[in-house]
Amino acid sequence: MEVLKIATAGSVDDGKSTLIGRILYDTKSLTTDKLEAIEKTSKQRGYDYLDFSLATDGLVAEREQGITIDVAHIYFSTNKKSYIIADTPGHVEYTRNMVTGASTSQASIILIDARKGVIEQTNRHFFINNLLRIKDVVVAINKMDLVDYSEEVYNKIKADFEELMSKRDYQDQKITFIPVSALKGDNVVHKSENTPWYKGEALLEHLEQLDKADIYNVGTPRFPVQYVIRPKTEDFHDFRGYAGKVYGGNLSVGDDVIVLPSKTRSKIKDIYFYNEKYETASRRSSVTITLEDDINVSRGDMIVKENDLPTIDKQFTANVCWMDAEHLKPGTKYVVQHGVNKVLAKVDRINYKIHPDYSGVENNVTELKVNDIASVTFKLNKPIFYDQFKNHRTNGSFILIDSQSNNTVGAGFIQ
Amino acid sequence: MKKDTSNINSLENEAIYIMREVAAQFERPVLLFSGGKDSITLVRLAVKAFYPAKVPFPLMHIDTGHNFPETIEFRDRLVEELGLELIVRNVQDSIDEGKVKEETGRYASRNQLQTTTLLDAIEEFKFDACIGGARRDEEKARAKERIFSVRDDFGQWDEKNQRPELFDMLNGQIDLGQNVRVFPISNWTELDVWSYIEKEKIEIPSIYFAHKRKVFLRDGMIWSADDEVVYRDDHEEVVEELVRFRTVGDMSCTAAVLSEATTISKVVEEIRESTISERGARIDDKRSEAAMEKRKQQGYF
């Protein structure tokens, strides 16, 4: 059984939490005690229906205000797949949560209120999904029950959204439109009789048939060294293993490799996973590698295949999503965490700010405010080994850390 | 080929990655060990992450004094077999020192009191990272928890001001006096943990399997009848039932479930078909709708 991570995006009151609650309910993922708690609270509040959003809105402040203010993770499974849904809030000020949720997801759902259609927020949600190169996006046109399940309304929204799609950067992104009512359960888990004009699948049916292998971007193998294992015991006296996760492609015993930044050549001797040896380590497996030669390798170094080098440079330009209340300004220093590697970086210049509602870019920008997205050039105190984000999701992304507050203040996608 | 195809493999790969980040980013990490199945799973993951080297951090158990005797026995054996370092700190000592006051009455439990003992121990050993077995599927407030979750000098969780976690990148930078709670099995569900225990043939305490026990019924839940630890009214009649525990906390806050599952595969089967959530058997969560969130803000796991 495989696991599929899905991000969700929608504006306030678009019914996102209700949709997730509905999926949980219709897949019988809500346990009796949770369901009883929802029934009890719904009744207390005088609703004449079950408020499924109560299943996901976890924090007291959220229940008080009836909104979602932080990323919540919801788990359920069918016979075919395990699902993790990142429930991310939709307000303008919470762009950072949406980027966060989308960064670990392979698919996403964008919600649109059928009564309101494509609004500025929708542009923003789509922009972020496209920026993060989510391969499979579902546009769920919700609250169809409130527009009498009108095909005309659905078609109008679809046409408006398709206009947005023509402006997107990542054209290969797959978009699927589904008319739903989360409250009534139409086309969420089961196909609805209320929309006979809709020939596609229900939302869950669509997610069930997504092929995970298809969704992941496959690139070239990158092995950032996380931790050096030196047991110094009698049995493993000279053992020197490099622990890390394989990204992008497979690594095999006998591969000719280069260790960066020293550019030392060697061969992969053994691949360990716990006490077993393997011929090949596949993408995303956490293994320990030993090399034929006794060379100096430490955390933050990267092992790559000889004929497949990343860019090695002391500067780069990236799309940055700024997440901190303090503004980003040229000349300021930050820590760039690129995978497990950390370097000091200085903001060289802000090239232009991107309006995530697809209304163009803005030049001559002097600073970035929270939730701004911009192209920024950085200079580093030592080289890093990177790929463009469009070719390598992991090796093309980084976070910015404020060395005063230690907070994660931004995320970047290398251009 | 070492593959990452099935759900359980990818969860294992993720958890091992997190364990290694802890060892690399922190100076004094510790693994908080409760004797429950989740922390036993963590120990297994830590052993696998650093093989053939030893686990580079100690285990710490905050002993409430109300643990099931089977748990303590199991803990000591595990530590010895794996050659791990174990630190034990007792809630009884915090009570004796007058730092916390024992609860009284029908629902008295030491569950809340352990927060003080834990925070004191973190300060005593200057631990900068505490690895715990909390999972996001357990409870609503935990669903919002980060993998690296920063706590201030008072051990408090500021849920509205959490660091965003992007891709695989974990930011463990903190100031002196702060610490990070680390949750390597955040993304595991109860069933995942059991499937892993089955797959890895991990030994767990006997109370997780069906056994005969003296119990009594209260509020529709099955309580362990241990009069030294669990308060019981005279009219609450003790009966013997075939039960097992689905989650193991203190005797005073963990309810049993009727079960005939005597092997891991039968337990897995039972959970698959269960309609009650795991924490549904936790008496401490029933105190109010936001019980867990409040405890977390104070420094509880």
TrEMBL record, chain A:
Q: Which residues form the signal peptide?
A: none
What keywords sit in the KW lines? Answer: ATP-binding, GTP-binding, Nucleotide-binding, Nucleotidyltransferase, Transferase
Listed Pfam families: GTP-eEF1A_C, GTP_EFTU
* UniProt keyword ATP-binding, yes or no: yes
Enzyme class, spelled out:
transferase
Protein's GO biological process: sulfur compound metabolic process
Tr-type G domain: which residues?
1-222
Give GO MF terms, alphabetically. Answer: ATP binding; GTP binding; GTPase activity; sulfate adenylyltransferase (ATP) activity
Catalytic activity, EC: 2.7.7.4
Q: Which NCBIfam families match?
A: CysN
- Name by which UniProt lists this protein: sulfate adenylyltransferase
Q: Which organism is it from?
A: Aestuariibaculum sediminum
Q: What is the lineage of its organism?
A: Bacteria, Pseudomonadati, Bacteroidota, Flavobacteriia, Flavobacteriales
TrEMBL record, chain B:
Molecular functions (GO terms): ATP binding; sulfate adenylyltransferase (ATP) activity
Q: Which Pfam families match?
A: PAPS_reduct (PF01507)
Please give the superkingdom of this protein's source: Bacteria
Q: Which UniProt keywords apply?
A: ATP-binding, Nucleotide-binding, Nucleotidyltransferase, Transferase
Q: What is its EC number?
A: 2.7.7.4
What residues does the Phosphoadenosine phosphosulphate reductase domain cover? 29-255
Name the SUPFAM superfamilies on file.
Adenine nucleotide alpha hydrolases-like
Q: Which EC class does it fall in?
A: transferase
Single GO biological process annotation from the record: sulfate assimilation
> Signal peptide span per the entry?
none
- Family in the record: Belongs to the PAPS reductase family. CysD subfamily.
Protein name (record): Sulfate adenylyltransferase subunit 2
**Organism expressing this protein natively:** Aestuariibaculum sediminum
